[in-house]
Amino acid sequence: MSRATGIGSMPGTDFAESLRVVLGEVGDFAYVPELPARGVHAGMIGRTLAILDGIGADLQPDGWRLGAGEGADLRRARSLLAQDLDVTEELAGDHDGLLKIQVTGPLTLAATVERPRGDKMLADHGARREISESLAEGLRTHVSEVRRRFPRAEVVVQIDEPSIVAVMTGGIPTASGFSRHRSVHPPEADSLLRGVVDAITGAGASPAVHSCAPDVPVQLLADAGFTAISFDLSLARPDDVWAEVYEKGVDLWFGVVPSIETSGVTDALLADRIDVFFGRFGFDGESYAERLVVTPTCGLAGASPAWARQALSTAQSVAARR
Question: In this structure, are residues 119 and 29 in contact, taking their beta carbons and an 8 Å threshold?
Fold first, then answer.
C-alpha cells in the first residue's frame, strides 16, 4: 500500500498540537514538524544550524551569519529543537513506523547563510565545503540521538534543497544585488551532497531529498545516493530520467496536494495526475503502489490550521487509492 507524509513545516506555534495532527493523519509515515511561526530559530535554517558541528552562528539584520562560538540565537534554536524532540518522544516514543526529520541541505545553506565577514558562504569554495562537512558531522550525532529516542522507528532524513537549481545555474544574487554568484558545477554539488548522504546512511537512516524548484537535477540527486526524491509534480517535466532513476531503486514522493487552500481538489483528480505521470513511462499501478509516497506540494507553514490537517488527510486518501 502507498504511504503519505508531509514535507515538514506546519502553521501555528503549538508544537504538540501540530504533532498530534501529523500522527493522526499520516501516522504510518510520521515526521517531526517545523513551526517557523515561532520565529527564525524554529525555521528550516535555524533548525539546521542548531545541529552543525564545530560552527557557531548568530542572527544579524540580514539573517543568519556564521561566527565563532555559540551565540544567544543559536542557543535558542538548539533549545527549541531539543524541546520538540522531547515532546515527540513523549507522544510517539513507541512509534514503530517511518519517522522523518528534515534539515536544510548544504547548497541551500551556502546560498542563505552569510560568512563571518559578510556575503553568502556560496561565494567561497572552502566555505561551501566547510558547511557541508559540518552538516554531515552534525547529522551523525543528530540521527544517532533520534534513533536512541525512537528505537522502534525507521528513521528517514529529508534534505531540503529549495535553492539547488538557483545555486547550480547562477541564480543567487550577491550581497550588493547587482550581480550573481557563480554557478556551482555538478561535480562539486555531487561532492557536497554525497558527504551528507554518507553521514545519514552511516548513522543508520535513509536519505531523501526534497525540492519544490522546477527542473530538479534528478540524475545528480540519484547519483549522490538519495533513496527518494520528493518534488512538486506540477513543476516536473516528464523526462525519461525519472523512469531511469525509479527503475534503479530511487523512490518518488509526489507533491500533488496544494499547500494552501484550493477549491475543486478531489482524491480522484490527484490520483489521476500521478497515474498519468507514471503512465507516460509504461508503469501500471501495481508496479509502483508499494513504493509511492504522496505529499503536499511544499511545506504547510502558510496554510490555515484547518487546511494543513485537510492537506495531510487528502494525501493519505490519495495514497489509499493506490
Answer: no
Pair 56, 69: CB distance under 8 Å: yes
Domain regions of the chain by residue span: 3-320
| Integer Cα distance of 135 and 182 in angstroms | 22
pTM of the model: 0.95
- Tell whether domain 3-320 is in CATH 3.40.350.10: no
- Which cell goes with 13? 506555534
Determine contact, residues 128/188, Cβ cutoff 8 Å.
yes
Sort 15 into a burial class: Cβ within 10 Å, 0-12 / 13-18 / 19+. buried
Measure the CA–CA gap between 135 and 132, rounded to whole angstroms: 5
Residue spans of alpha helices (H) in 203-266: 218-223, 240-247
Is 157 in a helix, a strand, or coil?
A: strand
Helix and strand totals (H; E) in the chain: 12, 10
pLDDT in tens, 95-127: 999 999 999 999 999 999 998 887 898 998 999
Q: Are strands 251-257 and 228-232 parallel, antiparallel or unpaired?
A: parallel
* Cα torsion angle, 211, 212, 213, 216, sign: positive
